[in-house]
Structure formats: structure tokens, C-alpha cells
Amino acid sequence: QQELLSSQEEQFQETQHMLSDISRAAAEPRRLAATTLPPKVHVIDNTTERAFTDIENLQQALDHTWFILCGALVMFMQAGFAMVESGCCRAKNVQNILLKNLTDVCVGTLGWWMSGWAFAYGGPMVDGYLENGFIGTDQFFGAGFMSTPKAGMIEPTGAIKSWFFQWAFCGAAATIVSGGVAERVNFPGYCIFSFVMTAFIYPVCVAWTWGYGFLAKDISDVGYMDFAGSGVVHMTGGVGALVGAIIAGPRLGRFDNPDAFNPHSLPLIVLGTFILWFGWYGFNCGSTLGMTTAAKGMMAAQVAMNTTIGGATGGLTVFTLRLALLKKYDIGGFCNGILAGLVSITAPCGNVEVGPAFVIALIGGFLYQGASALLRKVKVDDPIDAFAVHGVCGAWGTLAAALFDWGDGFDLYHGWSGFACAQDASGVCLKGAWGGGMAANVVEVLAIASWVAAWSTIIFLPLRLANFLRASDSVQQEGFDAAKHSPSKAYAMSEPGAGSCVISA
Fold first, then answer.
1. What does the pLDDT look like over 356-402, one tens digit per residue?
2. What's the 3-state SS for 178-202?
3. Residue 34 pLDDT > 50, yes or no?
4. How far apart are CA 112 and CA 16, in angstroms?
5. Which DSSP category does 156 fall into?
6. Which residues, in sequence order, are CB contacts of 428 under 8 Å at separation 6+?
């Protein structure tokens, strides 16, 4: 026992020394900056490279763990999308909805690997920004992620962890579209769009923004601000869903007999909403892109708090609005309100205080309700309100990130600087920077909406004209599951009436 206690004491002392080293490094940032040699796993030439220090080893381990954990949470959101979308639709099409969700992940993975990453983050970079400002041109098929400096030695890069984390975001953007065109789009035609979205359309939007393209450099001194993707991810998916819904046309009989299209499973919708809310903490908190400093840890906590307030506020806002309008409780509206609040706070979650987060989500709830009602009035059939939730609230969240930035009034601006103001080269806060930040975010909304709408039209319209997109009336009447799937039902149930089902005795 004495030997065990002695060993534990030694381990404790070693841990204390390591923590002490980390604290000194945080207090003296120049200490690690004294050498400009890049750290490597394998050191071949001491004059051009060096080994990782103990502190750097720990930081790399923490960062990789954070990326993998948060990326897995974002990936799990696919289960939430599947539950919400299948629950919102009729029982006779559930398998087909789930098929498209599964395909989005698998086809999207290959699209991201083949060209998506390269267009989004491939570079080349000059002075920290994308050289051409528009699209990446390197690292197709993961090229350059690892090298072989010497026989028997493989040198990895940090791009691998980023590829995984950003892949999960790419899949989310594509899946949003599937809900907007549900119950009337053929599977092969949808697969074509899903691949183009993940391999080209979405990655270019990323290149302009998170890939340090023209929106990060050329619009203003402070650039755009979209912390976790209200515009980059959600608006991209929402606009694609709107274009798809318009070109595909409404489901057969949708506006002749609306009650026949009621959601078939509110339990699935509620379950999916909770899964999405849970995964959103990976989506937003993970966008700190690391967990190696006190400031990043505190930022992740601030983001988590804002995200929580956003979801709760959006849900209660729409629930209250629907209660006032219908004089009855609307659980489906409650769920979409939660998602509207979460989408609204996704861009500004890293540069607003919790009070503004409440206001942002409150306004997002009103905007969602208005957009949802407007789409029904003009007879655009969006089964899960993908555009109202992700498109409208995504645009609003992007604008709100600049409008409610926690800088001092409308003079100072924080944006990507986090807890500090945006500064000039001499370390002085930029005066009047808010206007530049607002302008950049307005351009982001316009640029992404135009890009996605144009390319979605280019893909969807020829497919519709070639009769390759929209399912026949007979298939829609029978249901995709019976017409296209084996087994022919998602449930062992009988359906006594349209829009309802009971478990067989």
C-alpha cells in the first residue's frame, strides 16, 4: 500500500508540474512563439522542423478530442432530421423519407471526400486567405492529408480532424433539402441533387466564408460573422428546399384536402426535435474549433447558454402564437419553433450576450410563423417548413449576428474576435467597425441565397422537364413505400382513415 501511495503521489506531482507549465504558457504566449519551426510527429531535419512540446502534445490531443466529439454530435443530428421528416409526412411514405436521409449521409460523404473539402478548404492560401477568394483548388480526395517523409514514417496533418467535423455540417445542409421536397420526388433524381449539393454548391459557400474567401477579406476590415452557420449551413439548405419545392410542385391533392396531409406521428417529431437540440450543442459549441485555452472554454459555455435560450424562446414564441391563432395546442408548431430559435441563434451565438439571444430567438419565432403562413397562402408545398425554419431564420440569424454584436454600441465591433474588440495593427479597437460588419453579413445573405437558388434551379429544373424528378400521380396515390419498397409498409399497422393509423390487434 505504501508503494501504491508513493506512486500516486509521484503521478500527482507530475500532473501538477504539467498544469503549471500550461498556466505559464498561457500567461507568456511568446514562450512558444520563440521558434518558427513547424512541429512534427517525426523529426527528420532539426534545422527545418521540431518535435511537439509536452504542452503542444496535450493541446493537440484536446483539440482532436473536441473536434471528434462535436462532429459526432452533429452527425447524430441526422437521426433527428430523419425522425422529424418521417413524422411530419404520411405513414405510407416513411420508408422513402428514411431512404433519402440515409442517402444524404452516404452520398454526401463521398461528395465531400471527392471535391467538397477541396472546394471549401483546399486553398491555396496567401497571407491566411483563399488565394482566388472564390473556390479551393487543392486536396481533392483527401490528397495531402498525410505525407511520407521517410520510408516507414507517416506524417499526419491537422486537416484530418477538420475534414471530419466539417463533413458533418455538409451532411446537415443537404438533409434540410430532403424535407422540403418530401413525398413527391423520385429517389434517383434526388440523389443527383444531393451529390451536387455536397460536392459543389455548399462547399463554395463555405469557401467564401469559413474557407477565408472574399466575404472574410474583401467586404470590410472585420469581414462577415457567422459563428456556426445560420447562413452558411441553414440558409443554404433552406433556399435549396424552397427551389426544390417550387419546381417539384405540391403533393397530389395537398391543397384540395389539407387534413389528409397531417403529420402521421407527433411522437417521432418530438423525439427528432430533442435529438436535433442535443446535437446542436456540437454544432454551435464545436465551432470554437478548439478547446485548449480558458478563453475557448468560456466561449463554448457562452455559446451553450445562448443556444439553450434560443431554442426555448423560439419554441415558446411559436407555441403561444399558434395557441392564439388556433385556440388549441399545436405540438408540431412548438417543435418547429424550437428549431427556428436554434437556427436564429446559430450565427450570433459567439458574439452576443444572453439578453440579445432571447430577442433574436423571439423575432425568429415570429418570422418563422409568418413565412410558414405565407408559403401555404401562395401554395408552395414544404412538408416540414424547411424554408421557413432554415431559410428565413437562417437569413435572420446571419443579420442578427452583426446587428446585436456585443461591441460597445454601434461603434466598436467584436465579430470573430470573441471577447475582445476587433483591432487594428497597433492593437487599438477599430472605430466605426460595426457598419463594415453589417455590410459583410448583408452581402453574405445575398450571395449565398443567389448562389444556391441559381444552382438548385440548374439541377432541379432539367430533372423536372425530363420527368425524372417528380413521381407519377399513381405512385403518390399509392404511396412510395408500397410502390417502391420492400417490405411495402414501414409499420405493421392498418389505416382506417387518411392521415391516421392504429396498431393492429
1. 999 999 999 999 999 999 999 999 999 999 999 999 999 999 999 99
2. HHHCCCCECHHHHHHHHHHHHHHHH
3. no
4. 43
5. E
6. none
